[in-house]
Amino acid sequence: MLTIFFISFAIVAALSMAISLMLTCHAWEHLRYVRGSCGIDRTAVSLGRVGLIVPCKGVDFTLKENIRSFFDQDYKDYEIYFVVESPDDPACGVVRKMLSTYSHVAAYLIIAGESTAGGQKIHNLLSGYHALAADIETIVFADSDIAPQRDWLSQLVTPLERLSVHAVTSYRWFLPQRYDLANLLLFSINAAAMGMICSRRQSVIWGGSWAISRETFEQSDIPLQWGRYLSDDLFATKKLNRLRLNIFFEPRCVVASSSDCSISNMWEFLRRQCFMGRWYLKKSWLLGVVHTSLSMLVFWGGLLGGAGLLLTGQSVPGSMGLTLACLLWIQAGIRSKWRQTAGDLYLRTQNPHLQRARWFDVCCYPLTLTVLWAALCSVAAQRFIRWKGIGYQVGQTGKVRFIERESSPHTTNGPLVVGSSLALSQTKQSEMDEGPKLSLYTQENKTKVRSIRRRAA
User: Are 383 and 394 in contact (CB under 8 A)?
Assistant: First the structure.
């Protein structure tokens, strides 16, 4: 019986070590890709007028600085569409003040109203999309909690023309404001996830920073189907993958995002990310569960079991167990070191304030592995999630079946344009004075998506 147990553990250990070695090779390849991409002199090109849609909810401690960075882009021809759910949202006051302060860029504040069929964020994004001017050729989506550099917008849209790709995305790099356990765990797990989903071959869209041509966006039917789902980015990824349209990861557009969370906030965030993967990228979520489960079994089994065997005088199997645990830990440390090197390239500087976070990422593999495994497994049978104070229940296909929200005394039927910057032309300003003229999207003379691929080829 004991022999069967050791053989079974050896098989599991072999699988875990093989997966760990593959991940280590992937981390090295990712670093090489980032170095190569950042070393290329890719001169930005103009893709006509760009519409930047930024959904907002609540006031983060860096919201004002983040919004300022959107107005400070070096791209010459773009408009910004800030979208909130309600005029009572605290973000409205901040956005209105920034609209009046920065008048050199055309910008709007849009009230989307409450979503009744899908995720509130998607509802806000669609309201911004319906408000786009007719001459907008490229659509960029961004979260309000990022602080992009000045060339972010131009570098994000350039590959659409130069590389003939269909969508371009980047990712976030958390900057902990406090070096406590919650923020360090979030920093480490986010960095590890980034190395997995951001690839030179086929990346996963991150909703906080991605670009797509308006033509591709409309012909892929994303705006027609988005409204019933919860995850904006993973649904778009799944849709483009199904149509075999390529998604490009642009390392030089990775954005800094400040984090200052409690243990409960960190756990809620991780579970929500895992929940989205569970329902919209099921294969990736399942692979994550398998990988972390094998690693948990081999690491903790090897560490604790090996120590126990050594204490009972069984030195050979005990030493083997401890060796397996150490090998997993060492490989995780190597991967961490490489992704931290890539992080310096993303941010284009070495931030000495991140030194403690880097050491945590390198040394605390057992803790981050355990927390990530628990988060992945905790959503296995879950259909209900709460996000930004709103509860959602999803069905078998990932569509939202039920929305739970607190009753609001002021309900707005959007979308409505309620503010703009001074950079708008007199014609547009007069149209806004008459009232918003936002119409729902209708697609006439639909072109088959295969024509997109033919042009890209």
Answer: yes
Does residue 39 lie in a domain region? yes
Tell me the pairing of strands 390-394 and 384-387.
antiparallel
Using alpha carbons, select from 194, 298, 312 the residue that is nearest to residue 255. 194
Phi, psi angle pair for 178, to nearest 5°: -135, 140
Instruction: Tell me which residue range forms the domain holding 150.
Output: 32-261+408-456
Instruction: Supply 263's token pair.
Output: 């243990």
Written in H, E and C, the secondary structure of 379-418 is CCCCCEEEECCEEEEECCCCEEEEEECCCCCCCCCCCEEE
pLDDT in tens, 141-176: 999 999 999 999 999 999 998 777 899 999 999 999
CATH code at position 435: 3.90.550.10
**Model pLDDT for residues 183-195, shown as the tens digit of each residue:** 999 999 999 988 7
pTM above 0.90, yes or no: no
Q: Of 343, 342, 335, which Cα lies nearest the Cα of 363?
A: 335
**Domain membership flag for residue 318:** no
Residue 299 lies in a domain: no
Is residue 6 one of the residues assigned to a domain?
A: no
pLDDT tens by residue, 207-241? 999 999 999 999 999 999 999 999 999 999 999 99
Number of domains in the chain: 1
The structure tokens listed for 238 are 């799944």
Which DSSP category does 229 fall into? B
